[in-house]
Amino acid sequence: MPETKSNSLSTLALQKFKKNFWGVLSFYFIIFCGLIAIFAYVLAPDNSQNANQMHLSIHSKPPGFNVKMLTIPSQNSYDQSFFSKVFFGEKNTDTEIPIERFTLKKDVLKIYPYSEGEIIGISKEIPLRSFPDDLSSNEIIDTYIKDQKFILGTDKYGRDLLSRMLVGIRISFSIGFVAVLISLFLGISLGAIAGYFGGKVDIAIMWLINVTWSIPTLLLVIAITLALGKGFWQVFIAVGLTMWVEVARVVRGQVLSVKQMQYVTAARALGFTNFRIISKHILPNSLAPVIVISAANFAAAILIESGLSFLGIGAQPPMASWGAMIKDHYSYIILGKAYLAVIPGLGIMSLVMAFMLIGNALRDALDVKEK
């Protein structure tokens, strides 16, 4: 007997999606970025909380910059779990000093801090008792003086740009997920209620949708953010509360079409509750366009958060955010150090493009009319 092929819509959609090169590539890129977001502090050269180790003497250095770094251990120690270090960064109070050279005397480590030729000959003496007593002089040098390379250079505060980029991807991913979840919950709920019950309920919900849609998104987000206050979660909620209208309109239209089907009429005849009919019979057959919209909303949420951070009402310092990094360094574009703003800009562009490409691929895959 000939081998039978599965004709389910989900199987056909998956097969079509796998044939879309850019969609598959974007999917793996997003998975890769997600893993980076989760293990950012494991990968970042600067694993302090928010990658916030500042070295003002080496600010705005180009990619590949090398310097000797002296670490003076702190007398205060924090009892921090492995889980906390991996996911939230290390509570590091050690002092790091970029140096040009050093000499070792009997009880003193004499260092010459990095000065980029501006001031020559100023030295500083560090008593050896600042380091653990059980280490010899050579062991102190080997342990606490290292050649440090800044792969992407440093920002205007002397922080490692690569570490800030790795930690900053968390904001973009978090804002996308939370905003999309909020928009899906509100949009699907209100859209399904409006489409199923119709009448005055439909009129009231559509009025709310039209009023919300008539307000420019960025202005509405700014208003909600100012009402809730500046902060991390406030931005997430504000963005989510402005992205549900498109989901609601699409779900309403789908429900209006699907509720006329015979299986819905049969469910009513069997005495099923309205909630069961909507959740078990109507919504599962109405969500294909919503999946595509969710991918686009994910990209839009990243852009909105970046814009809010650029305006100073998004994620607040010292939290790493790609939008805030552009805000801090956009003036450097005309000062010959454009990479300080271009690198986070490329990060935003690549992530948004990946979600838009995967959205297009999902739209093509879920289009059952195509063969």
Automatic annotation (TrEMBL):
Membrane topology category: Multi-pass membrane protein
Annotated compartments: Cell membrane
Gene3D superfamilies found in the cross-reference section: MetI-like
Principal cellular location given in the protein's record: membrane
Keyword Cell membrane attached: yes
Domain of life: Bacteria
Domain ABC transmembrane type-1 residue range list: 169-359
Pfam family membership, one: OppC_N
Regions crossing the membrane: 21-44, 171-197, 204-226, 232-251, 282-304, 338-362
PANTHER family per UniProt: D,D-DIPEPTIDE TRANSPORT SYSTEM PERMEASE PROTEIN DDPC-RELATED (PTHR43386:SF1), OLIGOPEPTIDE TRANSPORT SYSTEM PERMEASE PROTEIN APPC (PTHR43386)
Record-stated family: Belongs to the binding-protein-dependent transport system permease family.
Protein name, entry field: ABC transporter permease
Originating organism: Aquimarina gracilis
